Amino acid sequence: KLKHWTIVFPLTLDLASQGGQLIVAGLDSKTWQSSLPADPWQIPAINSSPFTSGLSATFTSLGSVELTWAWVPDMDATAQQITLTIEGQTLAPTMVKRPTVTTTFTMAQANNLFTPGRKFIIQCTPIAPGLWATPVNTTFSIPKSSSMSSISLNNQPLVSSESTMTSLSAQGTNTMEVWWGTPQGAIQTAEFPLQNFKPETTQFAGTSTVSGSGSCLASASVNSTNQQVWWITETGAIDGQVNSGKGWAPPGTGPGEAFPFNKASTASTVNGGSMASLILQYNNGAILFWVDPKGAIGCCRWMASLGWQTVFDALPQGTASASSQLTTLSFGSTAYLFCVSPEGAVVGGSWSDASIGTLGPMSPIVVASAGNAAPGGGIGSFSVSDTVGGNSQEIAVLWTTPKNGIEIAFVYEEPYSFRNFQRPLTAAQSVLGGTGIAVYSNTANQCSVWWIGQYGDLRRTNVDPTKVSSTPTPNWPVFEEVGPGSCRQTRSLIVQKLSGTQFDVFYVNTKGALAGLAYSL
């Protein structure tokens, strides 16, 4: 009786698609002699055309790599196996079934190896019924900024945990200076001449000047002969020093020279307190703002011709969360301030002319309703245009959300109306909670935003403000500037213009020391 046998030969699609023949011969189990070969069986031709389009890889605001492709119509592929090999390590493969066209590898899956400029290989293997196609390899590099240099200090006094750094660049010079509080309560400073990436640090004010846990610092450069730096003491007084062109020294005691806000309980000390400053039109003066213990926005104006004036509330009690940061900007004579309310709203105020003889309370502004912002998160702002529609002003406000994303709102203030619209800049969970953001706008259609990621890395995105309204889903390019495990969880993240061709970003590294990046335009 004739028996029938079935033998399965696995063939990869690349071999099967080449055609070929199968020839079978019998083998006697006793004599080990083979029979005459059977007639050849022709392997059916298999279409070797691509089963999917080329792979597209994107580095996302989450610190992940997202892979996207398209299935070629009328081809038989039903799934695709994807593997990622980095530093000799091949991650566990991911199987994606049709019609899904995307998959993501997270920073955690990559064992924190998604570092700036790191190259890796992505292998995609389409699968047809019973057959595996030829694997297709794609090389991808984690994006990082070009024309960027690291900044480190020759000696590294630590930054206290709740210290908020400040910086300024003296007008007419190519030098900037940074200040921060130390765990011993001292104020430390470092001066950065252009192209000097390893400056020395010096003690600016002695130990116990501020709380060892941290203090908010602020500064203003009115002109080349008037720079001022302030800090919040443990008692809630605001102290500081002045540079009138002859070096830093405490303020004078004469009329208009002494700080009228150097009194206990002037400012909140929660999380080190919050302050911000702005320069008036034509460099006629400066205004210092702070959050007071009852959530009001206190302020005081310094005029070049008069000195310091009276302290008053720019916005009433309950305006700001005790842990809110402040951001300010000016448009000609108009001044703006924004903060986060206790309810998580983004609020602020404006003066149409901040240089008039007597300032009253600011006109209130609501940028985003309650629940939109994280009170202890970052906030920033920049000017977009002062000629929108010919007679209106456009400004942008950015903040961290309760879900640890970054949102942006564009605020238009016209002579007789006020309007704004809001968009996400990053996905939720992109930002490490309780950290700051930094914003720098160098052209009308380019703005950079920095934040600390969930893995302690520093990321940057480039945003075109003119296209945000037509981009409801964030897809701006993201750059990994400093790799995982590099940044400490802190609100202190600042950017400072140094010259027409260079600006610097400063953060606190995991050792608690000041570090930075210098960008060349």
TrEMBL record:
Residues 1-19 form the signal peptide. It comes from the Eukaryota. Keywords: Signal. The keyword Signal applies. Gene3D superfamilies: Fucose-specific lectin. This is Fucose-specific lectin.
